[in-house]
Amino acid sequence: MGSQGSAWRGERASLEHTLRVPPSLAALRFVLDQAEPPRIRYPCSLRDFVPSNMTDSSLPGTATLAPDLLLGEPVTDATHAEFVQLLDAATRADDAGFLAALDEWIDHTRHHFGQEEAWMEAMAFGPQHCHRGEHEQVLAVAGAVRDKVAEGDLALGRRLLSELPGWFDQHVKAMDAMMVNHMRENGFSLIEAPSEQAA
């Protein structure tokens, strides 16, 4: 990766220090030395990026989301419920189905994070770069671990999944809560989440 790789490792170290990455996730950072810098699309409109695999009406509603993780914004809460459901499905997957389940969670998470970043950019949300930095850190770790799983290291993948709930709890209560509060305070309203009673 040359100088670009060195710069990326420097950025990663700076992010870890600035964001105080939980030690459990930071313990996996050794795999990042082989990871390319993340390439994430940043849409520029609140309604510009609502992937078809998000807020899927075939998935359960927010009942599976812990009450202390509900932020009261329907689209965000529905997406977070899907994050938890797909993470749980990957955790419960047998060895034969583990990589596919991990890929599904990573794909959803990439779109989930991209959607939040689109909203923050459209709102000119001040702390968006710090918030985005946490997203990039987790996606980089997940992508690098995914590559190790594809090579047969399922234990590393399962370790990642066991550590993510703690990170997610902190991220929702700090970063996402600030984002949703900014939406409310500035009159931003998102599209409605699908009704659980939809035909």
TrEMBL record:
Pfam families for this protein: Hemerythrin
Domain of life assignment: Bacteria
UniProt cross-references to CDD domains, sorted A to Z: Hemerythrin
Residue span, Hemerythrin-like domain: 77-179
MF-aspect GO terms: metal ion binding
Keyword tags: Iron, Metal-binding
Family membership: Belongs to the hemerythrin family.
Protein name per Swiss-Prot or TrEMBL: Cation-binding hemerythrin HHE family protein
Organism in which the protein naturally occurs: Cupriavidus basilensis OR16
